[in-house]
Q: What sequence folds into this?
C-alpha cells in the first residue's frame, strides 16, 4: 500500500512533466506505469463500493421486468436518489440528520467523559474499585436495548432517555478499556517519573493519562458501533425525528424506498463519525509505530 | 553527598535476596556493582532508588534515611523507559518541568543535555524512531537533566549489541570526565566494570564478596597496564569454585 502510494506519486510527477513537455506522451508513459484512472483508484479505494451500487442497480432493473420478487422490495439506487431528493425537499432528512447527530455526539461525549472520570477514580482509589467493579460486572453485560422501554417509562419520550441510553452504551466499553489502559502502564515509566521528581498528581496527568489514551481510543471505536445501534433503536421508539424515526415511519406507510434512504444515511453517518475518530487517533498517536506496514516495506 | 548502605537485608517471601550489605559511596565516585544475574544487585539499586524498602538495616543519604524515590537520585533503566508519546526534547525536559522550572528554561536545559549526548538533530523525534543506543543516550541525558546527586544505572547497556556497548562505554566515560557525577552502575560485564569504575563491588548470593579499587588512570583501554590483571582477579572471585574447577578441567582435556 505504502509502496504503491510512493510509485503513484513518482509517476504522477513524471507524467505531469511529459504532459507539459511534449505531445508524444503516449510513447513516454509506458504500459508498465498505471494510468491516471487506476492511480486515482489506488489512492481512493472506492471501486468496490461503486461496483456494489452498479450491481444493485442492474439487479433491480432486471428484477423490474423479470420479477424474481416484488420489485418494490428492492428499489434501484437511482430510484432511491430521486425519492431521496423528494424526501429532502420536505426537510425531514435535514431535521433527522441534525437531531440524530446531536443525540449521538452528546451521548457519546457524555458517556466517554463519565467513563474516563470513573476510570480515573477507580484506578486511583482501591476501595472505589472494590465497590464498583462487582456492580459493573453485574449491569455491564445487560444489552442496553433491553433497558430502553424502562428508560421511556422512567423519563418519558423526550431527548433525555435517548441521550442517556447512548451515553450508557458508550460508558461501559470505554470504562473497561480505559481502566485496562491505566493498569497496564509500564512500571518503569512510573518509576522513572518518580525519580525525576514528579509528584503523584503529575504522574497521573503526564504519565498515566497519555499512556492510557491508546486504550481509550480502542474503547471509543468499539462503543461507537454499539452507540449507533442504541441511537437507531431509541429513535424507533417514541421519536418525532431522526434516522430511526424515518425507518419506522416508512414501515407504517410501506415506503420501502424511504427505509433504504434512512439505512444508507445511517451508514454514511457512522462512517463519518468513525472517520473523525480515526483522525483524532492519527493526531494523538503520531508517536506510535508498528503493525505490518512498518514491519516490511512492499 | 555520602550514601551509606548499612547492614541491609531483603527477602521476597522465604527467598533471601540480600543479606548484610554494607557499602559507602562518596561524591564523584564511580562504583560498579558486578555479579551474576539473580545475585541481588538490581534489588540493591532499586532500594537505593527508593522503589523498594529494606527489610533490615538502613540506607541513608547524608544521614537521612531513604523513604521513597527522589529527584536527587536519578535512574537509568535497561529498557531506557522513555515516554514514547513525548519527543526526545520533551522527555529530557520532563524532569526540570515537573520540578517547576519555567517551560522555556526547561527546554533550554533539555537542549543543553541533548548536546552533551550528541543528539541535537533528533530533538523533535519520538523514541520509537531511535536506535537502542540513541535511546539509552537520551535516558542518560534525561536522568542528568534533573541534576541528581547520584546517578543509578541498572545495566544500562545490557540490551545493546556489543559494538554499541563499546561506544556507549566511551561516551559515558567522556560525560563522567566532563560532569564528574556520582554513579552507581550495575553490570554483569567484568570488562565494563574495570573500564569505568573507581571501585568494583562484586556481589555473590546476595552478599558483597569483595570490593576492588581499580587504580588505573583514565582514559583506560584493555591494553592499559593492570587491566588484564584486574579482570582476572575479579573473575576469580566472581566464578564459583566448582565452575573454576570445571573450566580448568576443560582446558586440561
A:
Amino acid at each position: 500500500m505504502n509502496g504503491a502510494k510512493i510509485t503513484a506519486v513518482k509517476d504522477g510527477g513524471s507524467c505531469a512533466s511529459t504532459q507539459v513537455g511534449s505531445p508524444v506522451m503516449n510513447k513516454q508513459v509506458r504500459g508498465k506505469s498505471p494510468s491516471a484512472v487506476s492511480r486515482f483508484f489506488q489512492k481512493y479505494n472506492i471501486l468496490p463500493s461503486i461496483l456494489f451500487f452498479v450491481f444493485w442497480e442492474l439487479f433491480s432493473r432486471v428484477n423490474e421486468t423479470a420479477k424474481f420478487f416484488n420489485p418494490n422490495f428492492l428499489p434501484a439506487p437511482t430510484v432511491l436518489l430521486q425519492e431521496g431528493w423528494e424526501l429532502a425537499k420536505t426537510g425531514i432528512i435535514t431535521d433527522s440528520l441534525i437531531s440524530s447527530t446531536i443525540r449521538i455526539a452528546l451521548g457519546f461525549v457524555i458517556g466517554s467523559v463519565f467513563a474516563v472520570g470513573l476510570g480515573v477514580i477507580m484506578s486511583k482509589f482501591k476501595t472505589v474499585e472494590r465497590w464498583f467493579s462487582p456492580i459493573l460486572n453485574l449491569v455491564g453485560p445487560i444489552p442496553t436495548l433491553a433497558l430502553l422501554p424502562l428508560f421511556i417509562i422512567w423519563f418519558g419520550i423526550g431527548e433525555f432517555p435517548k441521550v442517556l441510553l447512548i451515553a450508557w452504551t458508550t460508558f461501559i466499553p470505554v470504562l473497561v478499556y480505559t481502566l485496562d489502559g491505566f493498569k497496564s502502564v509500564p512500571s518503569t515509566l512510573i518509576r522513572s517519573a518518580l525519580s525525576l521528581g514528579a509528584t503523584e498528581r503529575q504522574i497521573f496527568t503526564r504519565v498515566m493519562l497519555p499512556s492510557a489514551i491508546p486504550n481509550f481510543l480502542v474503547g471509543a471505536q468499539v462503543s461507537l458501533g454499539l452507540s449507533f445501534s442504541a441511537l437507531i433503536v431509541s429513535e424507533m421508539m417514541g421519536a418525532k425525528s431522526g434516522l430511526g424515526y424515518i425507518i419506522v415511519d416508512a414501515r407504517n406507510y410501506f415506503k420501502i424506498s424511504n427505509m433504504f434512504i434512512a439505512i444508507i444515511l445511517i451508514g454514511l453517518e457512522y462512517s463519518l463519525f468513525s472517520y473523525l475518530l480515526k483522525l483524532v487517533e492519527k493526531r494523538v498517536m503520531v508517536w506510535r509505530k508498528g503493525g505490518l506496514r512498518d514491519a516490511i516495506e512492499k | 553527598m555520602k550514601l551509606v548502605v548499612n547492614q541491609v537485608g531483603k527477602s521476597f517471601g522465604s527467598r533471601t535476596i540480600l543479606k548484610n550489605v554494607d557499602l559507602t559511596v562518596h561524591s564523584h565516585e564511580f562504583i560498579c556493582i558486578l555479579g551474576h544475574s539473580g545475585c541481588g544487585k538490581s534489588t540493591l539499586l532499586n532500594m537505593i532508588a527508593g522503589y523498594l524498602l529494606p527489610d533490615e538495616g538502613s540506607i541513608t543519604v547524608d544521614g537521612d534515611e531513604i523513604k521513597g524515590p527522589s529527584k536527587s537520585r536519578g535512574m537509568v533503566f535497561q529498557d531506557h523507559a522513555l515516554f514514547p508519546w513525548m519527543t526526545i526534547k520533551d522527555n529530557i525536559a520532563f524532569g526540570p518541568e515537573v520540578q517547576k522550572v519555567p517551560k522555556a528554561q526547561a527546554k533550554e536545559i533539555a537542549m543543553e543535555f541533548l548536546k552533551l549526548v550528541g543528539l541535537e538533530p533528533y530533538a523533535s523525534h519520538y523514541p520509537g524512531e531511535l536506535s537502542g543506543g540513541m535511546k539509552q543516550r537520551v535516558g542518560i541525558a534525561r536522568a542528568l537533566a534533573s541534576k541528581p546527586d547520584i546517578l543509578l544505572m541498572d545495566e544500562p547497556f545490557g540490551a545493546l549489541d556489543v559494538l554499541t556497548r563499546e561506544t556507549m562505554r566511551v561516551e559515558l566515560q567522556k560525560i563522567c570526565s566532563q560532569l564528574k557525577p556520582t554513579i552507581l552502575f550495575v553490570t554483569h560485564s567484568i570488562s565494563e566494570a574495570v573500564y569505568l569504575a573507581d571501585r568494583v563491588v562484586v556481589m555473590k548470593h546476595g552478599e558483597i564478596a569483595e570490593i576492588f579499587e581499580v587504580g588505573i588512570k583514565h582514559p583506560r583501554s584493555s591494553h592499559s597496564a593492570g587491566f588484564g590483571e584486574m579482570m582476572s582477579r575479579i573473575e576469580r572471585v566472581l566464578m564459583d569454585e566448582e565452575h573454576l574447577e570445571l573450566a580448568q578441567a576443560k582446558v586440561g582435556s
Summary: Chain B has two domains: 25-51+62-72+150-253, 82-147. Residues 202 and 238 of chain B are 7 Å apart (CA to CA).
